[in-house]
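Give me the 3D structure for Glutamine amidotransferase class 1 domain containing 3.
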Amino acid sequence: MAALRARAASRLAVTPWFAPRPGLWPLPFGGPAPSSRAALHASAPRPGPRVAVVLSGCGVYDGTELHEASSILVHLSRGGAEVQIFAPDVPQMHVIDHIKGQPSEGETRNVLTESARIARGKITDLAKLTAVNHDAAIFPGGFGAAKNLSTFAVDGGTCKVNRDVERVLKEFHQAGKPIGLCCIAPVLAAKVLRGVEVTVGHEQEEGGKWPHAGTAEVIKALGAKHCVMGVTEAHVDQKNKVVTTPAFMCDTALHHIHDGIGAMVRKVLELTGR
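Predicted structure for Glutamine amidotransferase class 1 domain containing 3 (274 residues):
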């Protein structure tokens, strides 16, 4: 046994595997580290695009559709984007009891405060959003887009758009920066950006599969072009850099909604050029 130990010691003395090689530092785990010269020439990771996500409350009937918002955030995360979430600091149009599907009498809520639930508290007043600091903007759907970001739910084509929402859409458009919208949110672009191309899905109800198909006619009446698309697809208006997808305008399985939103997010990120 003593002879074996002596033989092993002599081999280590001749060929020490743990000895540092020229230009390398030894690491206790994971192998050698680059030399100082190699580290000096290593390029820093390229930052991802900065994307603003604009919410309209919390809950499909009176705010942001949560599954759409979550799907957008997942796809942005996967795409390496740096995300900042915004919402207007204004009262909701009303509060809906999501079990009964009816307004809750006497109850009021704030859009920014409610949106903070989805943002896990990390949210900024929409009044502070500017195109200068971001590469793209994305608007999830939900009735909040038609009730809190605009009056579309009540006034249809004659609706008014929230002042900051209108400003943000125009700023990003004029700066040539992409805008993504899904579900009912494309009506915001149709109202503010004349001649824009958007989709809210199909133009016929098709037995209830597209229960809000009539929205397409309102979009056309606003002077925008409506493009028929499937729920897993996204339409890209290359000229205006506006990307839209139907999402829950279609009554379908959740994974189809997720796929369509993924297509929208990928196109938006591609249009940033980063």
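The radius of gyration is 26 Å. Let me know if you want a second pass.
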